[in-house]
Amino acid sequence: MVLNTLRNLRAALPQALGFARPGEAPVSLSAKPPRAADGDVLLETVGLTKTYAGADSELPVLGGIDLKVRAGEVVALLGKSGSGKSTLLRCLAGLVPPSSGTVSYRDTPLTGANPGTAMVFQTFALLPWLTVQQNVELGLEARAVPADQRSDAARQAIDLIGLDGFESAYPKELSGGMRQRVGFARALVVEPDVLMMDEPFSALDVLTAENLRGELMELWESGQFPTRAIVLVTHNIEEAVLMADRIVVLGSRPYGTIRETIEVGLDRPRDRNAPAFEELIDRVYRIMTGRTKETRIPGRPEGTDLDKRTPANTPLPTASVDGLSGLAEMVAHRGGRCDLADLADDLGLEVDDVLPLVDALDLLGFAKISDDDLVLTDRGTTFAGADVQQSKTIFATATMNVPLVKLITSSLHQNPDSTLRAGFFRDVLAHHYTSEQVTQQLETATDWGRYAELYSYDADPQEYRLDNGAGQAT
User: Which of 87, 231, 321, 470 could form a disulfide with 451 if both were Cys (CB 3.0 to 4.6 A apart)?
Assistant: First the structure.
């Protein structure tokens, strides 16, 4: 049984990497289309949408994506978590079919795995029982390339990516950076038109990621790179500006759409300290956070009054009470106002890591955005300086303007025994969110409601219970 499982895994991985189409004969390398000239359109989406089935309705992930990827360019798909950037990448690779619209490779609509792409994942996706050489040969094996030819091609790819001497090593013998090099070699050995990369550096330590990123771009610029275009998924603004010729910024509400496309226009190698580089980072940051044309928090419908907010149109950010309290205190210590990008840099975090906490402070009425600065409100300043009991009282009052917390509290008040199973709220949220999002929403609501002493939660029966004396803030 174990042997069959291993065989199935080995057979399935090439398809997951985009090396073969399900149900079709393997593709010979000799059947590859002619090399594209710079500017030729390799990939194109027209009106691409993607939805997934929820409990009672379709849940939108992507909506109306029109995108072209041309030979000779590096395109970064940039966005916050939940913006659909990885789903878009998989649609381009033919690994996920669109719900509507088309995805084309060289003017031919896809009906399966894209024959002109290969994928590099964040998690390496190596088969641990195969050597480096054997892992790199997987894609060629799926394309029925003769053993001697694929061995030679794999060795060339291994040498190109800086792993010569490790051909007989197993993944467990390699560092994270070296394992990811194997992933790159495996993708490049089939010489795809487009190399697809889904946050390939995010699982590596900072120095390793920086080194591998630099080497990859050196290869791209040298002309030795055996691919005509790169599509990179990232949430790291600096990484996008450093690597890409074009940055496609995705927004996430109510579903993934292209917020703006930016032509980078900076010469390589790029100087992080150059004013033009820093100005572009600031520009992308403002676009990514939705503050170029408006001063509101992404995810909140513009102009939604307090009495019109619902759990559907006002999702809870992934932010713990400790996290948002800590951010409020940091801003208070800086005079009640600070630049978000500077704060993220000082903390050694990405902007993407800070934004959920910013969303939480805004949702609670503790802070607002003014230009690029986070500014505490009077209530937020009081909250940041309060002792534990005072902060609980302030927090309890503020959370009653948060739809999901208010829903749980009011439902408990209306129930005769002041208890309700979590499944009730899951069913309500399932009309608007995926199962993973429902879990995240309830986890945040549980954390906030407990701290505010509005209700308690018993994990064993999965039951909410009204706290003694709760409801004073209602």
Answer: 321
